[in-house]
C-alpha cells in the first residue's frame, strides 16, 4: 500500500522512476536510489483503476513482483508491509517480524498433490544474524486474500503455524522461487488475529504506527544486508 511504501521511500530518499520502469497497463509504481553502496528499489502495487484504492492481495503482489524481478534483476527481494499477528506466537502491535517461511491459508484444493500445492509452504532464506542484529521477532507468514478469516482459513492458519497473517508474501515467494532469487519478508503488526477486535478497526487505528516501525527498521536492515552474501545473513 502507498501508506506502507512512502515512509520507506522518504527515509531512503528514493526518487520515483520517471518514465516508469514498470510499464502500463501494470499499475505498479517504483522508486530507486543508492543506499549503503547498493541500489535499492521500492515497488508498490499502485491503485485500482476501478475502485481508486491500493491494489492488495496475492494477485497484484505476484504480478508486480514478476515484473519488478524482470526489470530490476535484484540479488534479494524483501516484502515489507503490515500484517496481523498472533499473540499466541508472541506478536504485539508494532512488532516487526522476520519471516521464517511462507504459506497460503485460503487455497483449498482437496485433490492429491493439489492440496499441498494450494498451501504451497516454502522456507524464507535463513537470516539468523539479521534477526539477532535487529532484535526482530520471527515466525511463519501465512497469506490469504481476506482481511478477516473463515473457519477453514483459521484451521489452515493453525496448520501453517502462522505467527503473521497478511495478503501478499506467499504470492511473492512463488515468483522469487521461479526466479531463484533469495526472498525475505519484514512484517509490522497492526492487529491481533487471535484478539477480540475486528481486524479492520485495529488495522486502521495502527497503520500509521506500524508503517513508522517499518520506516525505523528499513535502513538498519539494508545496511546489514549490503555487501553480504546470502549465507552471511
Ligand atoms: N494486514 C494487516 N492486518 C491483516 C490481517 N489481519 N489479515 C490480512 N492482512 C492484514
Keywords for this entry:
binds adenine; 233 residues; 9 strands; Rossmann fold; 25% strand; alpha/beta; three-stranded antiparallel beta sheet; five-stranded mixed barrel
Helix content: 25-40%
Stated plainly, the CATH topology is called: Rossmann fold
Strand order of the largest sheet: 4-8-7-5-9
Q: Low-confidence stretches at least 5 residues in length (pLDDT < 50)?
A: none
List the ligand species.
adenine
Beta-strand percentage range: 15-25%
Number of strands: 9
How many individual helices? Answer: 7
Mean pLDDT: 97
Radius of gyration: 17 Å
Name the structural class. alpha/beta
Highest CATH level, the class: Alpha Beta
User: Span from first to last CA?
Assistant: 27 Å
Overall geometric form:
globular
Q: Summarize the main sheet.
A: 5 strands, mixed, barrel
Tell me which CATH architecture applies here.
3-Layer(aba) Sandwich
Name the CATH superfamily classification.
Nucleoside phosphorylase domain
- Domain count: the total is 1
Task: Give the helices and strands as they follow along the chain.
Answer: HEEEHEEHEHEHEHEH
Question: Can you describe what's shown?
Answer:
The chain has 233 residues and is α/β, with parallel strands linked by helices. The chain has one domain (2-232): 3-Layer(aba) Sandwich (Rossmann fold). It is 37% helix and 25% strand. The chain contains seven helices and nine strands; from the N terminus they run αβββαββαβαβαβαβα. It has a five-stranded mixed barrel. Strands 1-2-3 form a three-stranded antiparallel beta sheet. A hairpin with a 2-residue loop joins strand 2 (29-35) and strand 3. The longest helix is centred in the last third of the chain and has 27 residues, at 199-225. The two termini are 27 Å apart. The structure holds adenine. The site of adenine has 12 residues, from strand 4, strand 8, strand 9 and helix 7. Adenine binds next to strand 4, strand 8, strand 9 and helix 7. One of its GO terms (molecular function) is methylthioadenosine nucleosidase activity. InterPro entries: MTAN, Nucleoside_phosphorylase_d, Nucleoside_phosphorylase_sf.
